[in-house]
Every structure is written in structure tokens, then in C-alpha cells.
Predict the structure.
Amino acid sequence: MKYVFVFLVLGLVLVTLFSGCVSESNTQDNLNVTNTTQDNTPFSDLKDNSNQSNTNNNNNIKPEWINLTAYDDSGQNEIVFYFTLSNEDQSVETVSDGVATVIIFDDFNNLIYKGTFNVSSKDFHYNEIGITKMKKLIWAGRISMQDMNKGFSSSGNLKLNFKTNDQINFDVSTSVYALPEFNDKELTAIYDSQFLKIAKDLNYVKKIPNHLRLTLDRIGLQTIFEYDKTVTYLRLDITVENIGHETISYYPNPKILTKDSKQLEDSYISSLDYKNSFDSGEISPDVIKAGAIFFEISDDFNMNNLKQLILNTDLTEYDVIYDGKNKGDTIKDGYNYVFKFDLSDLK
């Protein structure tokens, strides 16, 4: 399973595949989207290049249909959008004065941009569009990336509301790509900040004298963005300190027992995917490692149903019997010794 922490990589793949894509949606003024097409060669110049301008005849035709297109202009670090107006059967293009409101969301419905544009009939121009170089009478606008908020995905949705001065109202939307997004460091900071606001501090300590000390710092739920959905995990923060004189190899191998006789298995998320995940492995003397471990939970998860957390130690039966090591706060579990933390009183 891949996690949200790598979806930035997926976002970059999307940018590579779709940068410059044109996505067009057609709607009537009843707001229903009826068609969607894509054109991989959008024009790069929005100036009037046809030696044609809109005439007074265009102004006499009531707009009943709108087409919207948006793409990223990477050279200018902008999102370009343009729309056409026409009669109901789209046989005749027209123009109109009014106000266009543009809202952009990322794939997780986070607001990236909101702005308004004054639309004038005289600013509609003919342009050659797409591979066929078909001439269309368009009104175009540009949105600088600097005016956008960062999101959790590089793709999203651009929604446009155009209200004419005659109070004709159009709503239309289209896909958009190459949106600004948070990097790994920023994502980690956001997730940690959200978690710390709701997590319960525990400070439960267990140790093996002259060997290691383990602290269960806090517990709580953490919701993250994963692919095209949000996922909630049970997160526990632990701190492990080598208080001995030899390097130890520590892998927590966590599991949680519930009051209804079930067991929660950890959802392994490495520190390569999420910076603050617990980094298992060797710990030298006097070195401290801290990080998060995660558990998959069901939709009906209840914190009150937790019973016990079991964490592995590197202490074995051989170490206790033959090397005479102190088992400390551990409990024998087969050949190995483990730490067990009571979670039954959590609210």
C-alpha cells in the first residue's frame, strides 16, 4: 500500500502527463455538464491572431451556452482559462458583458484560489484553438501561481460562474493541472500540528536497566490525504533511549489488543515516506530515537475499546538465562520479552 506521503511523487507524474492539457466542459444555463473533451496542444498566445473581431451582430445574440477550457502555462507560471458563449444549439457564437468568478480546488476539495474578473464584450477575440486550429470567439483570463494557495495535490478542479449584465447565470467546471502543492516537509508539519492538537499525552515509561528505556508519549487519531481520499489512522508516538553500553537493534513490531478480543496490526509507514515515523534499527549507547507508529482502524473505531499495547524489545530468553540480563519491566512472550502498556482507561 502506498501512502499520502508519496502522493507528491504521483502528483509530479500527473504534471508530466497532463501539463498543457486542455480540458473542456460544456454546460447549458441549467448548470448540467454534458460533454468533456481534451486537447493536448493548447494555443500559447491569447492575442487576436485572426484579423477578425466580434461585430455588433454578436451582441444581439442572447448567450445560452458556455464552454470552458483551462490549462497551465508553465512558461509564464500561470493557469490560463478561457470560455466561449453561444446560442443554445452552439451554431452561433456571441459575446456578453458581466462578471466571472473563478474558484479552484485541489483533488481533496481544499480551496486553492478564488477571484473575480470583469468581462467586457470588446475583450472577446477570435483565436485558433487546438490541433484543428478552429477559430473560436473567446474571452481569456490568467491566474498567477503566486496568487494561489498550496494544496495537497497538483491537479484539481476550476469552477467558473459567469453572470451577464442581463442577469443570465452560467456555472461550468473543468479539470486543471500543475497546481502548487505542499512538499514533504510542509506536509509533515501540517499533519503533526493537527495531530498534536487532539492527541492525548500519556508519558508511560518502561525500561530494562542498563539496556533501554521506552516511553509511550501520546496517542490519538491522525487523518491524512492518501491518493484521492482521506484516511484516518491511530497514531502512537514513542521514544526509545539506549541506556546501556552496547549498540542495540530495536524494532517495535507493535500490536494492540482490544476489549472485544480483536487485534490491531500496525500499518508500516517508513521514515522515508513520512519524516517523523519511527525509524527502526540500530541505536548506539546514549542515543535517543523518537517517532510515530500507525495502526489501521475501522470506521466504527472507538478509543474506549483499546485494551493493551504490546511493543517488542530486543531482549530474549537467552539474554536473561545465560547472560543474566535484567528483564526490567518486560513480560515474557514466548522466547522474547516485550513491553505491555495498559490502554484500558483511555477516553
